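Running this now, will post back.
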Amino acid sequence: MPQAFLPLIPDGATGISDRISVAQENQQWTYFCGIAPVFRHAQDDRRSFCMFTAQLICQGACRQIDIIRAFGVSANSVRRSVDKYEQEGISGFFQPRKARGPTVMTDEVITQTQQLLSQGCSRGEVADQLAVRYDTLRKAINQGRLHEPFVTADASPSTTTASDKSQRSVTDATAEMGVTCTRPDERVLAAMEMLQGASTRFENCRDVSFSGVLCALPTLIANGLFEHLQKSFRSLGGYYTTLQVITLLAYMALCRIKTVEQLQYESPGELGKLMGLDRVSEVRCLRNKLSQLSEDDAPQVWAESLPQQWLEADPERAGTLYVDGHVRLYHGKQTELPKRFVSRQRLCLRGTTDYWVNDALGQPFFAVERPIDHGMLETLKSDIVPRLLKDVPHQPSKEELEADPYRCRFVIVFDREGYSPAFFKEMWETHRIACITYHKFPKETWPEEEFSETQVTLPRGETVSLKLAERGSWIGDKKNGLWVREIRKLNTSGHQTSLISSAYGQLAVQDAAGLLTRWCQENFFRYMMEHFAIKLLSEYQTEEIPGTNRPVVNPRWRELDRRFRSLKTKLQRRHAEFAAHTLHPDTDAKAVRKWEVRKSELMETIEELEHDLAEVKQERTATPHHLEWDELPTEDKFERLAPSRKRLLDTVKLIAYREETALAQIVRATLSREDDARSLVREVFRSAADLTPDLESGELRIGLHSLSNPRSNRAIEQLIGELNASELTYPGTSLKLVYSLHGSPTCG
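Update: finished.
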């Protein structure tokens, strides 16, 4: 009986047909018939690839569709290779290249290249035909020396009519390489490591979803979104560049796509169009890109390079900084994070504490993550103050500080958690840093006659009337105490709110305004949690806490302390019950006997509890309260949540928040409330717009649609005027962004 042929292929090879397969190794492509190698060529040898695949098709070893699916090439490219093989044979693929002149992209080559591009030839085909490097061709297109026309699926190459959503939906759904993958040549080259990032090429489109977010680009750039990327991150291989990934993350944050997983519910083609791509990356690909960008602690390097730029942009507000801590809860089971008190829930829960630094308007500068948290004071001394001393601009010199004994470098404002006379003294004597906080232990009530009506101007320009009084006060003991300014505010209820300040050189009203505007920081937290999901986890992996020598609570001491408090509670209950048995209930002999037995049992129990309590107390006293991290038993050590990916996403969200705030301030002039301004900006970000690239004039026109009412349109007109005045060129292209509002007499 004849044996059936088994379609065996070598390990690691990809099947093309039932007989032919291909494998990649050491920059070589090897083709197999069964398990026998039949042909080999270099990975970047496009001519040999076209020749051999055409030969396989003509000899019946596979079909055209097999080559298209296996290598992701276009049908037109395969068809042209087959025609060339049938007409010219193998020699047709290896005609001698034209000799290059001293300059590759000469005027003659530019003319020939433009003709081929206008005829609908791909970049790879043009590069092969004219014997120029693909990167040279791409650079010439990005510089605007060459123009690449937009070609729809059902139109001739010369068609420039804008596509609508229906047309794009059909084109994207029928793409040969997958949904919305309409640039097969670039994707194949990227897969073959012959392309470092897809080109940014906009198409003429109507009603592109979320394209209103392009209004954010000028202020995103102004806030440093693309600053220090090359210095901080290594280059990404493949189809998407670092700049494109960072841009996508910023657009996602502004459009309220709060997590990477939510990206799967949005149209990848529509998001791609507003970025000059065929589509954005799928969720799995984006996760891989984020993992690459998070290597070598690159997000930390990038995050630390931006606050100094923000501080220098507004040195006046950088003189007063606000610090507050917020707990990011963790309910997972990957690691046993230590518990800490969560004020908003009034519970001790597991999590990581983030300490944020903001200005008087709530604008964020940076955050410090503490998986092992010993409180705000320790974080201020070890992490925040050293960084501020380095980054805060325009600090007075040593000579200026010596000349004025009341002058400080800058002011730090925080809540009662940071109250410490010793810390106040250390900051002033060591660094000349002033501190403002609430008085934790105010003394007697001041007479109401001391308070006077005072007009206080808040950082946003609002003016409020307060009843204020001021005295000099000594806080702390003789060794660690100091004189401070104590300012009190008299409330309508008669309650006196006391604050203390070591900012000796500024007015009391400024100190009062400083603590009043601390609510801007609280508003920032609430807004970030609601709109930017700042509390959500971005990474579920854990890692060891690197090189920490900070003491942690001794698990043995914690267990003894728990037992001590439990025994003490039990003892108090038994004492109370014993006290209730001091009087005889009645004269019945049986009841008296029962009463005596119970009283005797209580006395024995109390003696046992007192003995156990004394032993536990003695053992707790002899047990160290804290241990160094390295001294902890292995079973008691915990890991921290991997911080790099979250730090990357949080940095992008901080930039997005600062950008949104900047646009809200522009439209605020025509609106009654700040909340209305932010709502309007959010509406613009999520709205559709028309994209019209004009290569002749070098412009990318963004046509916003009219909003729901004339007031909103007037605000948008003002915003458009500011954006057009920036004359921004879209990164990676030579196209200047030009904004307009449909139906507006002033915006065209």
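The longest helix spans residues 589-622. More later if anyone needs it.
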